[in-house]
Design goal:
heterodimer; A: 1132 residues; mainly beta; 5-stranded mixed beta sheet; 12% helix; B: 497 residues; mainly alpha; 3-stranded antiparallel beta sheet; 8% strand
Chain lengths: 1132, 497
């Protein structure tokens, strides 16, 4: 039987040896074992035995499968089976060699014995670790760059469905900011801070060696806008978290060198699981989660009683006068009351008698309402996630299949997700020279979100606004608790928004955004071992992703009704004021008309991605004189990406009438006259070619020297060949000090490696004008008869255009103490960014007053480290801990942009020379005007006044608050185990940044606004010194600044510190005893109870419930909820 | 033993690698990254030339700096710098719409489009098919440079033009971030303008435009030439070009019928729209400009007041009648319906965006005045009087109660001129008449400034409280607008202050 399998085993032995070669770079056994002839030996005796290895963390010894057993000096051998048993026929005086990657090779003389019990010792120098760069696998001991490996099982956070969020607090130097918690919205991830002033600053995601292209390119800044496209921001949202074998985060120039001119922002590499040799293993994971509703206890919003008393003050101050309010666009209780005073439809009695008592009673009813919008709009929803995988394999073929299903009923009304993933990975060892593999990964996503339009940034008034926003979270925070969702009869109660009736529940049902994503990747790999030490590899992938957003706005919802308000039903005042109505330019004195007399909207937005990736590489290994290891690697790659975006606005779609559109031609005419296209289709084409070569030399495993050059070419800079190609390079070295003889006297230190890197990395800026860029459009003239197509010069040719670049120096240290029970890694780096793209004002004589050119510089420094320790490693109990720490500081050393105040004071901050990458600036708040409580600021001339012109370029007087991005961040992870129980907790912390408080102040308020309790300390009478007053309506026009209260939102009075400590996760697990499990014919079974995002332990008090990470921007953005998950795992 | 085999394999692999890469490499990266337009055809170049006109407005600063602006006092507000600074004869702060910097940038942007078009035409294999476009590019380039030299350099004076600093005359596309330029002299700039104009004008043809009123038609180019030669003081050429604008040199039918009862009966918004419509025959060349002039000019603190109204429209005139122009508004908001705003919203539902005004760059009225002025200088008194009376026939009314033009009583004669202006020189009287008529005609249109400059007329501004009077004398260096500061990056000296 064994003989029958022999050739197969031999193949695997060769394979393992080759792997050894590949990973360790040397192996004396390999040289002796590799023979081409097959010989049959006389069977003197049959030796049977078991091979064991010491358990993890001091646990019991495990039987070891796959250990190579070889008769020394021959190629007679076998490998242990799944139970660690082997059987081999050898002469009775033979010496058996037991070897296994990561373990010390042991030679055992048979000496006539027929049973052997072998325990292999861990090879501490080996540590079993390889660094996967996506191009190569490098023995960690020989790796010279800064990289962090995180195994999938370590990183996995049950209940967290998007893998990009799993790196939070686990990897030093990687910041993960949850700017939105909605599924599909990527967190803001930075590896070692920002490198580009105007670029994306997103790390490169690589899955199984293939760069994962974004379907829609959403910059880190755009992630916090809440726009619908942010739901496509996470490129890894289609991955099943259970499929992930490991993460590898490549941080410095050496680690990322093979990615060349794309790697300036770091690389996050994901390796998915492969099939394993042995019995089929079927695993099931089921996660059952529930979210907690947000509660007013955590937010600082006035109750309805206090709110109504503020309204009463507003009424006294002339903001809620009958004449103004009754025909106002938006209104709540007062508007309703005034409308009820009318004799509607010829009735003999008004809805409400106009007596002080009747009005007081009416208002009092709402003062007592105290509506809990969170309770109405959110639910303690249920999310289930099922993942099933099967791994099976023989020496020739290994297969991994998985599928998963996620269903999230949605935390808020109007939201929900379903995701299906499927993954098949097959590896074939055709012969000892040829291997190939195939991966097919696919995912389908169906998501629903509240319907939303893009956000507008209005620099005139200093407001971000979103028309028809129905984001439940923003609604709950910004809508008065005096309003009610239901009237006393239990019917939905409508108030007025945009001149039309509005009820949030009605709206969430009738204004929806449906998102669907289909993503399919097929990947193949081919390996050919040309020689024992020369290997050729081919990798190729094809990916097709299609996403569709359907925004369905039912004719009954607010937006279409706003397009008709004032016309149907007729109301002359509203008709004149309603900005959604249309006046033809041919007849400027005519009455405005509605362009949407019937029906709603049907707005679609589709994105398609098609990409190819091809790579050829050669890997050559040479060991000579036992101590020299040389590895040469060369590769060539091609990337091809086509993107298409289509948008379409359908007017007058009648959802209730069988979907027949009712199109008023004025709708199209209005759009065209306003220079808006009611449909569009845009295509993007990315093409890349790259050539790379790497040489790595190691002397006796002590001294390593590594060098890489890469030559990148891309079409993205434009047609000129001058800019198209860019070489990057780096050199690095490491010294494994622990290998030195003098270290052998220090047994405490089990590992000490010093590393150093210097190199050039680059990335593509957002300028594409190495040749002239022209843009087609139409002229901005009022009459369609006078409009013509035009081609404008978008960007002049810039022959000096090049890539954004930086020199990076990195020094690092890996330290292992007490047999690596304590591990520490520290890296410090300096980055000199140059040729960065920024706007620069020119003489204008060439025809472009502000050019986007490579001239800006930025410097950043940082230090990061992680400390891991198995503090207690006993048989029945243990305690592991990991602490990560990252610090990054950046300074823009050269930037000639001229931002306006509005560009710098918002929550996202802005870049300015001499400050950090994104600095938060504030209008300098001085005091409240003693006469009326309006805010007074110090302007650029040092004068005090109300006036702030937000579009002004005079920004030098603004107060610098600090960086917007955290400069410090990290995590603290602890895991305890006692017998079958495990308990783990992850704390994350972040700080060093400043946060802009949510804008809550306005010049004028309506009876819809909800106010935080800051308003309870508002200026009411002379002598008060709290927060700004509610100004009297007649005084408002006399303020010399147009919008001082809006400006106050962006003043030094509205800033908080960003530091926080969060208990991100607590998990309690229980492994069911094997005896119990086996009764169910299972191999193992475990239960985990996980709480995610549990507790914000510390944050600045000034935030008053505002999440320090979340940007409350409305749209589709929701904060990360508190979540409890029960996780069930079974293995068959 | 392995050696030969290895070589063979190496060869094979490298062959594979090189075929995979070399074959595709060259063309592979030629793909444009987006759907950027290219200039491959006559149509493309024609579309590019749509942007060869300065899309900026000079009126705000030329009007405020002229004698058409008075201080309305603190009741009219603090004064927007773009309105206040020119009135105080100071360099205008800011760079946004309606500032000299913005206009400078827009002119050079237009020039860049023209130069890019010419670069394509010059390398085209079929240049003859592009002749109309070449003509437009040359004339448009000449126009933008002409406006620049008229605002940012001294007015053309044959005696000093060879030494007065000009503005950079750009004839090729810029292709580096910061390029060095030379100002040279006003005479050089005029030479270049004339060269482009005379080369380009004959190439224009009648049928090359979709919306002719926004392009240099032959008529518009002649109108431009009449202004150019007027500034250059070559009066016979002015007459020749002005005559070529309309068929038979007959300008009268194209003038705006201001005193016509039908026109006077129009509603404000309709009249405002009518003033800059392409269908209005008086408009020879229109341009869309990003500007807040139309919405702001009436409310600006430094602008048209009753004092100026009394000095111009309401004062006695040489014809002896009344002006038919109607003004609207009150003390702080006097206005004429000339500028209809086209508001381009930031997004379809937004209530903020960019305002655009259509500005008439050349009108029938200006051509008439150019011809009249040239004829006056040439001593053709009868021709001048004919033009002036043609003009008056569309403007003057007997009185508000009898709002019609009466040629019997309102006809302008040399005798009337001599007596009205108390001069013995008919030529001086005619020129004075022309300047006065132009001042009224082009109220709120900024052209008064150029007349004040050409005739070296001092300008006096007095603050509303009468505390300060500032005078811009004939040789004051502030008569020349300041070049943007950043021009120094390109080696351009700023104007003296």
């Amino acid at each position: 039987m064994i003989k029958n399998f022999y050739p197969k085993i031999k193949t695997s032995i060769n394979f393992i040896f080759l792997l050894l070669l590949l990973t360790t770079g040397f192996s004396s056994q390999a040289k002796t074992a590799k023979h081409t002839s097959i010989s049959v030996f006389l069977a003197d005796i049959v030796v049977r035995g078991t091979v064991q290895a010491p358990g993890n963390n001091g646990g019991p010894a495990d039987n070891m499968a796959g250990v190579t057993v070889l008769q020394k000096g021959t190629n007679n051998g076998t490998a242990t089976d799944a139970s660690g048993n082997f059987q081999l026929t050898v002469p009775d005086n033979a010496v058996l060699v037991f070897s296994m990657v990561g373990y010390k090779t042991q030679e055992v003389p048979v000496s006539g014995r027929t049973t052997l019990a072998i325990t292999l010792a861990l090879d501490e120098n080996f540590l079993k670790e390889v660094v996967v760069t996506g191009y190569q696998e490098v023995d960690k001991r020989l790796f010279t760059g800064a990289a962090t490996t995180l195994s999938g099982s370590d990183a996995k956070r049950e209940g967290i469905t998007d893998v990009s969020r799993m790196l939070e607090g686990r990897v030093a130097g990687v910041t993960v900011q949850n700017v939105s918690g909605t599924f599909g919205a990527a967190p803001k991830i930075r590896v070692r801070g920002a490198t580009s002033i105007t670029g994306d600053n997103k790390p490169l995601w690589v899955v199984d060696g293939i760069i994962l292209e974004d379907v829609v390119n959403i910059s880190n800044e755009q992630l916090s806008t809440g726009d619908p496209s942010t739901l496509l921001g996470s490129s890894v949202a289609g991955l099943n978290p259970d499929d992930i074998e490991s993460f590898q985060i490549l941080k410095d120039a050496s680690a990322t060198s093979l990615y060349g001119a794309r790697a300036m922002n770091g690389v996050i590499l994901i390796t998915t699981k492969k099939g394993k040799v042995g019995q089929p293993v079927i695993s099931y994971t089921g996660n059952f989660s529930t979210y907690l509703k947000p509660s007013y206890r955590n937010f600082d919003i006035m109750n309805s009683y206090d709110q109504m008393s503020v309204y009463a003050e507003m009424a006294r101050k002339g903001w809620l006068d009958y004449g103004d309010v009754v025909n106002r666009a938006n209104g709540g209780v007062y508007l309703k009351m005034y409308n009820l005073l009318e004799y509607a439809d010829g009735s003999e009695t008004p809805g409400l008698y106009n007596s002080p008592e009747a009005r007081a009673a009416f208002l009092n009813k709402y003062a007592q309402a105290n509506t809990d919008w969170f309770d109405i709009l959110f639910r303690n929803s249920f999310q289930q996630e099922h993942s099933l995988s099967l791994s099976s394999g023989t020496e020739k073929t290994q297969m991994y299949y998985s599928t998963s299903y996620l269903q999230d009923n949605g935390w808020s009304l109007g939201s929900g997700v379903q995701r299906f993933t499927g993954n098949v990975r097959a590896n074939f060892n055709v012969s000892d020279k040829i291997q190939f593999g195939l991966i097919t990964q696919g995912s389908i996503r169906d998501q629903r979100a509240p319907g939303t339009l893009g956000r507008n940034s209005n620099p005139v008034t200093g407001e971000f606004s979103r028309d028809f926003d129905i984001n439940p979270f923003s609604y709950a925070l910004n809508t008065s608790r005096a309003l009610t969702a239901y009237d006393e009869n239990g019917n939905r109660e409508f108030f007025r928004m945009n001149y039309a009736p509005f009820n949030i529940l009605h709206e969430l049902e009738n204004n929806t955004l449906d998102l669907n994503v289909i993503d399919l990747k097929i990947q193949g790999e081919f390996r050919y071992n040309i020689l024992r030490n020369l290997k050729y590899a081919f990798d190729g992938a094809y990916r097709y992703a299609s996403t569709g957003q359907e925004h369905k706005i039912h004719e009954d919802s607010n937006m279409p009704q706003a397009y008709r308000a004032g016309v149907y039903p007729e109301n002359a005042t509203i008709r004149a004021a309603n900005r959604f109505l249309y006046t033809s330019p041919e007849d400027p004195d005519a009455q405005p008309v509605s362009v949407l007399p019937s029906g709603g909207f049907y707005i679609t937005n589709d994105d398609f991605l098609k990409s190819y990736y091809l790579r050829n590489s050669l890997d050559y290994n040479l060991n000579f004189l036992d101590v020299h290891t040389l590895r040469l690697f060369g590769s060539q790659e091609l990337r091809y990406i086509n993107r298409i975006n289509k948008q379409f606005t359908g007017y007058g779609y009648q959802y209730d009438k069988g979907g027949v559109p009712f199109i008023d031609p004025n709708a199209i005419k209005q759009a065209v006259e306003g220079n808006f296209n009611y449909y569009s289709m845009n295509m993007g084409f990315d093409r890349y070619l790259a050539y790379a070569a790497n040489a790595a030399y190691s002397y006796a495993g002590k001294y390593q020297l590594n060098g890489t050059v890469r030559y990148d070419g891309s079409n993205l800079l434009g047609a000129a060949r001058s800019a198209r190609w860019l070489p990057t390079w780096n050199v690095s070295s490491s010294w494994n000090v622990d290998e030195e003889a003098f270290m052998q006297n220090l047994p405490v230190i089990s590992q000490l490696t010093l590393r150093a890197t210097y190199g050039l990395t680059a990335s593509m800026g957002n300028a594409t004008n190495s040749s002239l860029v022209l843009q087609s459009g139409s002229t901005l003239r009022p009459y369609l008869t006078e409009v013509e197509s035009a081609i404008g010069i978008r960007y002049l040719e810039n022959t000096e255009l090049t890539w954004e670049k930086q020199y990076e120096t990195n020094v690092g240290l890996n330290l292992g103490l007490f047999q690596n029970k304590l591990n520490a890694t520290v890296d410090a780096y300096n980055r000199d960014g140059f040729d960065l793209i920024g706007p620069i004002r020119t003489s204008g004589i060439g025809g472009e007053a502000i050019k986007i050119a490579n001239y800006a510089d930025m410097q950043s420094q940082g230090i990061e480290g992680s400390l891991g320790a198995g503090i207690i490693q006993e048989k029945d109990y243990g305690w592991r801990t990991q602490l990560t720490f990252g610090y990054n500081h950046s300074t823009i050393t050269n930037l000639k942009s001229e931002p306006m105040i509005w560009d710098l004071v918002g929550a996202n901050g802005g870049p300015q020379q001499g400050y950090s990458y994104r600095g938060l600036f504030s209008i300098d708040f001085d005091k409240l005007n003693t006469a009326n409580g309006s805010p007074i600021f110090i302007n650029e001339e040092g004068e005090a006044g109300n006036n702030v012109y937000l579009q002004s370029n005079a920004t030098s007087y603004l107060k610098y608050e600090g960086p917007v991005d955290p400069t410090i961040n990290g995590g603290f992870y602890n895991a305890f185990n006692y017998k079958n129980f495990t308990l783990s907790a992850l704390l994350t912390y972040s700080g060093g940044n400043k946060i802009r408080l949510n804008p809550v102040y306005k010049n004028s308020y309506t009876d819809l606004d909800a106010m935080p309790s800051d308003f309870l300390t508002r200026w009411i009478m002379i002598g008060d010194d709290g927060t700004p007053s509610i100004i009297e309506a007649r005084n408002q026009s006399a303020l010399d600044g147009a919008y001082p209260y809006n400006a106050y939102n962006y003043s030094s009075a509205r800033v908080a510190n960003g530091e926080f400590v969060r208990l991100k996760q607590v998990s309690l697990g229980y492994n069911l005893p094997t005896i119990l499990v086996s009764r169910f014919h299972l191999k193992n079974m475990s239960l985990n109870l996980v709480a995610n995002n549990l507790w914000l332990i510390y944050a600045d008090k000034r935030l008053n419930g505002q999440d320090p990470e979340f940007f409350s921007t409305g749209g589709v953005a929701l904060p990360v909820p508190r979540q409890f998950t029960l996780s069930l795992k079974m293995g068959i | 033993m392995y050696q030969p085999q290895m070589n063979k394999k190496f060869k094979y692999i490298f062959l594979l690698l090189s075929t995979l890469t070399a074959s595709s490499c060259k063309d592979y990266l030629e793909q444009a990254p987006d759907q950027r337009a290219s200039l491959d055809s006559v149509e493309d170049v024609a579309e590019l030339l749509v942007t060869a006109y300065p899309q900026a407005n000079y009126i705000t600063f030329t009007e405020a700096m002229s004698d058409n602006a008075d201080d309305k006092g603190a009741a009219a507000g603090g004064g927007d710098p773009i309105n206040r600074d020119p009135w105080y004869f100071e360099d205008v702060r800011g760079r946004e719409e309606d500032t000299p910097d913005f206009y400078w940038n827009a002119c050079y942007k237009a020039i860049a489009a023209a130069n890019q078009a010419l670069a394509v035409i010059n390398t085209a294999t079929n240049p003859e098919e592009y002749s109309g476009q070449k003509g437009e590019a040359l004339v448009a380039r000449a126009y933008a440079h002409f406006m620049l030299v008229s605002l940012f350099s001294k007015m053309y004076d044959p005696a000093t033009a060879v030494s007065d600093p000009g503005i950079p005359y750009v004839t090729e596309p810029e292709n580096v971030v910061i390029k060095q330029y030379e100002r040279k002299t006003v005479a050089y700039v005029y030479e270049q303008i004339e060269k482009d104009l005379t080369e380009g004008l004959p190439l224009l043809n009648g049928s090359q435009y979709n919306v002719p009123k926004y392009h240099f038609t032959t008529a518009a180019a002649h109108a431009f030439a009449s202004r150019f030669y007027l500034f250059k003081k070559e009066y016979d050429k002015v007459v020749a070009h002005a005559n070529a604008v309309f068929v038979g040199g007959n300008i009268l039918p194209n003038l705006r019928p201001i005193n016509d009862p039908a026109y006077r009966a129009m509603e404000y918004l309709n009249r405002e729209a009518n003033y800059t419509e392409a269908t209005n025959p008086a408009n020879i060349l229109l341009a869309e400009t990003r500007s807040i002039w139309g919405r702001s000019f009436a409310s600006y603190r430094y602008g048209f007041t009753f004092d100026i109204l009394n000095e111009t429209i309401w004062s006695a005139n040489v014809a002896g009648g009344q002006w038919g122009q109607q003004l609207y508004g009150q003390n702080l908001s006097l206005r004429m319906p000339k500028f209809r705003e086209h508001f381009v919203r930031e997004s379809q539902n937004a209530n903020f965006g960019d305002p655009y005004n259509i500005i008439p760059l050349f009108t029938a009225e200006e051509v008439l005045f150019n011809r009249a002025e040239a004829n006056a200088w040439l001593g053709n008194t009868a021709a001048t009087l004919k033009d002036l009376n043609d003009y008056a026939s569309t403007r003057m009314i007997v009185s508000d109660s009898n709002p019609v033009y009466d040629p019997e009583t309102l006809y302008i004669t040399t005798a009337k001129i001599r007596s009205f202006y108390r001069t013995t020189s008919v030529q001086q009287g005619l020129l004075a008449t022309i300047l006065d008529f132009k001042r009224v005609e082009f109220l709120f249109e900024g052209l008064r400034w150029f007349d004040l400059m050409r005739y070296n007329i001092p300008i006096v501004h007095t603050t509303a409280d009468n505390a300060t009077t500032i005078t811009l004398g004939p040789d004051d260096p502030r008569r020349v607008f300041q070049i943007p500061q950043e021009a120094t990056l390109s080696g351009i000296a700023l104007n003296p202050r």
